[in-house]
């Protein structure tokens, strides 16, 4: 996972299961590691790659619903290409709590 960088603020953290993908996004920055098991005792939800791809069909389903089906298709292609998983922080209202959780579940590799 690559923290800090371009992108819009969302309640989601994009992660990948492939180290080379994380390294490509990190460029000269750091790659951080976590596991699904570490998220189990937190208020964040892990959305697997297969679940994510299932949500990204047509105009998207559930939290992935979007007005533009083309944008959903592009996001799906990137999720497939980068073996993307999502950590969903919508249940964490306090940004300070989110920061504590991130520190607890990620370690610099």
Describe the overall structure.
The protein is α+β, with helices and mostly antiparallel strands. It has a domain at 12-54 and 83-108. 39% of the residues lie in helices and 16% in strands. The chain contains five helices and five strands. The strands form two sheets. The chain has a three-stranded antiparallel beta sheet with strand order 1-4-3. A two-stranded antiparallel sheet has the order 2-5.
Which features characterize this protein?
109 residues; alpha+beta; three-stranded antiparallel β-sheet; two-stranded antiparallel sheet; 5 helices; 39% helix; globular
Question: How would you summarize this macromolecular structure in one to three sentences?
Answer:
The chain has 109 residues and is of the alpha+beta class. The chain has a domain at 12-54 and 83-108.
What order do the helices and strands come in, and which of them pair?
Layout: E1 12-16, H1 19-26, E2 32-33, H2 36-39, E3 45-47, H3 49-55, H4 69-81, E4 84-88, H5 95-105, E5 107-108
Antiparallel strand pairs: 1-4, 2-5, 3-4
């Amino acid at each position: 996972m690559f923290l800090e960088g371009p992108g819009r603020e969302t309640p989601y953290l994009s992660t990948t299961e492939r180290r080379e993908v994380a390294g490509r996004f990190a460029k000269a920055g750091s790659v951080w590691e976590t596991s699904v098991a570490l998220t189990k005792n937190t208020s964040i939800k892990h959305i697997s790659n297969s679940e994510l791809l299932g949500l990204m069909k047509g105009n998207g389903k559930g939290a992935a619903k979007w007005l533009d089906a083309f944008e959903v298709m592009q996001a799906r292609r990137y999720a497939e290409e980068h073996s993307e998983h999502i950590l969903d922080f919508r249940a964490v209202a306090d940004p300070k709590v989110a920061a504590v959780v991130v520190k607890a579940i990620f370690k610099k590799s």
